[in-house]
Design goal:
The structure holds two protein chains of two kinds. Chain A is mainly beta. Chain A is built from one helix and eleven strands; from the N terminus they run H-E-E-E-E-E-E-E-E-E-E-E. Chain A folds into two domains: 30 residues; 148 residues, Immunoglobulin-like, CATH 2.60.40. Chain B is an alpha/beta fold. Chain B has two domains: 36 residues; 284 residues, Rossmann fold (3-Layer(aba) Sandwich). Helices cover 46% and strands 8% of the residues of chain B. Chain B contains ten helices and five strands. Chain B has a five-stranded parallel sheet. Chain B is globular, with a radius of gyration of 24 Å. Classes of the chains: A mainly beta, B alpha/beta. Chains A and B meet through helix 1, strand 3 and strand 8 of A and helix 1, helix 5, helix 8 and helix 9 of B.
């Protein structure tokens, strides 16, 4: 009798434990990702990039492409395609200036590069990054140029990485930023 | 040790009632789980769609998308050159779902690579908040058995997901209780503002949010197809056009047009430039966005013609390219 009682109790507690465990692992109420930045690391350069590029920033990182999709007159979706080559160190931020023909900044998409891109295992691979960009000013301007450079926000004077090769894209006088794309509002 | 009659009776009574209790508990659990499986996950439709992962399938053309893709009846399509059509559309599936479906399972287990994917895009394709909320984690049980076994054994880090998907009764999404309210006698009870049981105008006004995540996965999926040298034809199946649209309708269609241009894809929009009488006859619709069987038959005939035209043009272009190479 005692044994049968123990068996029944054990079975019941196992059942309750199993149900509890499944309840714990089964509940998936997390919302789907809807943040501001999305990126992933891929071995092969994705195909279908609207503006293929070959811009090398001091042999540390390449910008290999950019795709801009206009969501509306107020927002853009920008895809950047990077190829890290070395440790980025303090140079962990990218400035992206959307300017008019006279080099006046209309709006920007300055953002940090993820620290994991600096790690050795990312070197030589490709990073596809997407950013949603708010347009503060623009529709009254016809042409818009996109200038991209890398800088170190934590070092005094915010030094920038020098562009070693630009793959034919126009660069500024000090070789610190390149005009990577141009579009019309 | 002496066993008395009363102790035997007591033991029997107690053990019998405990066993009976256990049986009732297990039956209840099994029954409720079964109801949740059919009510919550539309498992049957998904399971049927997942059958295309079997090695026997040799479809040259694959139809993907959400429930709106049901407006195309694959079996009714008669494509020139003997091309066969398979359907891999899951109700409520969003680009993230379809990206995972394609990269995690289709590429891995489906031996025959299709030459064309017909992706049925909804104008609210990026809305994973109010419309397309299906998650692939909840559908592992729909996988064909050999794939389920192989994935759950070799993918140990996801084993919890593979096991728990067999018990949807525990997968209650507190943000979406529609599958519970559906069990109630009063069908009009709704707990979600986005419910399609709302008035049709309101339903259209609500959907259309552009989620960054879904946008990202859609682009990734197109890039994946391009890398695999699979042609993509974007199709928007007919909706009932005599109902008001929200502001996001034009906005989202504009995004889809841009994406099609950017990736050089043909885009057949049967709610805009290719709209027909099907769009204005309510008898063709189950609700504002879903064709019923009459509508699906009518639309499939129309689409069959356009698809054949597309196939001929694509083959012609390929032949021209081959000639150039020669």
């Amino acid at each position: 009798m005692a044994i049968s009682k123990i068996i029944i109790r054990l079975t019941l507690s196992t059942l309750i434990f199993l149900m509890g465990t499944l309840l714990f692992i089964g509940c998936d109420n997390k919302p789907q990702t809807s943040g501001t930045a999305h990126w992933d690391i891929v071995d092969v350069l994705p195909v279908g990039i609207a503006q293929p590029l070959k811009i090398n920033y001091d042999n540390k990182i390449n910008l290999v492409g950019i795709t801009i999709i206009k969501l509306s007159s107020e927002e853009l979706m920008v895809f950047y395609f990077w190829q890290p080559l070395q440790e980025l160190g303090a140079f962990d931020k990218v400035f992206v200036h959307f300017t008019d023909a006279n080099n006046n900044i209309l709006f920007q998409n300055d953002h940090s590069l993820d620290p994991s891109w600096s790690s050795k295992k990312s070197h030589g691979k490709y990073i596809r990054e997407m950013q949603r960009v708010k347009i503060d000013k623009g529709p009254e301007v016809k042409d818009c140029y996109v200038k991209v450079g890398i800088f170190a926000p934590d070092l005094s004077g915010w030094p920038r990485l020098k562009i070693t090769t630009s793959g034919g894209m126009a660069i500024d006088e000090s070789s610190m930023s390149a005009i990577v794309d141009h579009f019309i509002f | 040790m002496t066993i008395t009659a009363s102790s035997i009776t007591g033991f029997d009574m107690r053990s019998t009632s405990a066993i009976a209790f256990l049986i009732i508990l297990i039956t209840l659990f099994y029954g409720v789980n079964k109801v949740f499986r059919t009510q919550a996950a539309v498992d049957l439709t998904a399971s049927n769609a997942y059958k295309i992962l079997s090695p026997e399938d040799k479809s040259d053309i694959l139809i993907m998308g959400s429930s709106h893709a049901d407006g195309i009846i694959a079996n009714y399509l008669k494509i020139n050159h003997g091309l066969s059509v398979g359907k891999f559309s899951i109700p409520g599936s969003n680009p993230e779902y379809n990206y995972n479906l394609y990269t995690k399972y289709f590429k891995k287990y489906h031996e025959n690579k299709p030459s064309l994917v017909i992706y049925c895009v909804d104008w609210f394709i990026f809305d994973d908040v109010n419309a397309l909320r299906r998650k692939i984690d909840n559908d592992y049980s729909c996988l064909p058995r050999h794939i389920y076994a192989s994935e759950s054994i070799y993918n140990l880090k996801d084993i919890q997901k593979y096991v728990s998907c067999l018990f949807p009764v525990f997968r209650v999404d507190r943000n979406n209780l529609s599958h519970i309210t559906r069990l109630l006698p009063n069908k009009s009870v709704s707990t979600t503002p986005s419910s399609y049981r709302d008035s049709e105008d309101r339903a259209r006004a609500i959907v259309g949010h552009v989620s960054d995540g879904q946008f990202y996965y859609f682009i990734k999926l197109l890039e994946e197809f391009k890398a695999d040298k699979i042609k993509v034809l974007l199709v928007q199946t007919p909706e009932y056009l005599k109902v008001k649209y929200g502001a996001s309708y034009a906005h989202n269609n504009n995004i889809l047009n841009q994406i099609a241009d950017l990736y050089g894809l043909e885009y057949l929009n049967y709610n805009h430039d290719k709209a027909s009488s099907i769009n204005y006859d309510k008898n063709n619709y189950a609700d504002w966005g879903h064709l019923n069987s009459n509508g699906a038959v009518a639309f499939t005939q129309l689409f069959n013609y356009d698809l054949n035209k597309y196939v001929e043009n694509t083959l012609l272009n390929r032949a021209r390219k081959d000639d150039d190479v020669l």
